[in-house]
Amino acid sequence: MVDRRFKIISGAVLALTCLSVGLHQRAEACSPVMECFGEEFLPRYQAPANFEGGYWIPTLEQLAPTITTLQEQFRLTRLDGEKEVDIPVSLEKFESDTYQTTYFWKPLEALEPGATYRVRGANFCEDPPEPGMEHVFKATEPAALPETLGRLRVDQRPDQPLEVDTTSGSCSWEIAADQALVALLPSDEVLPWWELLIFTTYVDGERWEYFRSIAGTGGPVGEGLSGRGRALIYAGCEEDNQGGGLSEGTHTVQMKAHLPGSEVEIWSESLEVDFSCDDVWPVYRENEDYISLHWKELVGSWLVVFVLGGGLAGVFMLIWMYVRKRRRSKERV
């Protein structure tokens, strides 16, 4: 009798353990983990020979090495001529509002117009650091610093459901939204500096950023998910504004561009964009999507407590009863 009861309760504990772990893992399906990010450089293809410097996002884990270590691994070389020539650079951390650690690198010698240069970093996720990505760009003719940025226009009005970030337990979800893809038409004086500019979008005077998921970044350095000089603006059409976004009505959009290593900050002309949810179709969701992931997490947590607490206590009680029965049997014998 005791043996059978022991097997039944042990099986129940095992089943509850599997169930609780499954629910717990599902509830924690989107726990952003700091991983080794891919390396990025600015400029990407070309820049005026009189540019002040560029940006470097090295391949890092959570903790960045010292500036000295980074500088030892960063190289700028000229490829033209009989052999590759090293160009001295300085490196300093750029205070960015993203979780990607960004550094500003500055050549300490004048670059030659028409020459080709290569920048190299290192993979600091390895110990010791291994050679990382290398990037080639061309120095073009010197250009005057830009004073005007250009004007904005609405490039597209997407009508499909919009994927946005959420903190409700999953990384993202789709919402109904009235959307506008705003694009910059750059002025002629901006074009030579296009690849170096760091763009920021403002709506009604407030900084605007669109994130597709809480587990990812907002896009490459200097631009958003929509591309360089482009921004996706939207008004959420979910009940109680659950998906975030702007309110319905008219909003004023502007872009600002900053040139690394300089005091140049130029603004685009403003653009007014109208948003309305009247013609936006709701997003169809299956019944399971309405189940709160917070509730699943709570249930999973309580099952873990039950298994590790009451369940294990029951197993130990059965073991004690089994041992006690064996002792009584021996005493009778």
Plain-language structure description:
This protein is an alpha+beta fold. The protein has three domains: 2-30 and 290-332; 40-140, Immunoglobulin-like; 150-284, no CATH class. It has helices at 2-27, 67-73, 293-332, and strands at 40-42, 46-48, 54-57, 75-78, 85-87, 89-94, 102-107, 116-123, 130-140, 150-156, 162-165, 172-175, 177-186, 198-203, 206-208, 230-236, 249-258, 265-267, 271-275. It has a five-stranded mixed sheet with strand order 2-9-8-4-5. The two termini are 20 Å apart. The relative contact order is 0.17. Residues 13-28 and 288-295 have low confidence and may be disordered. Keywords: Membrane, Transmembrane, Transmembrane helix. The chain crosses the membrane at residues 302-323.
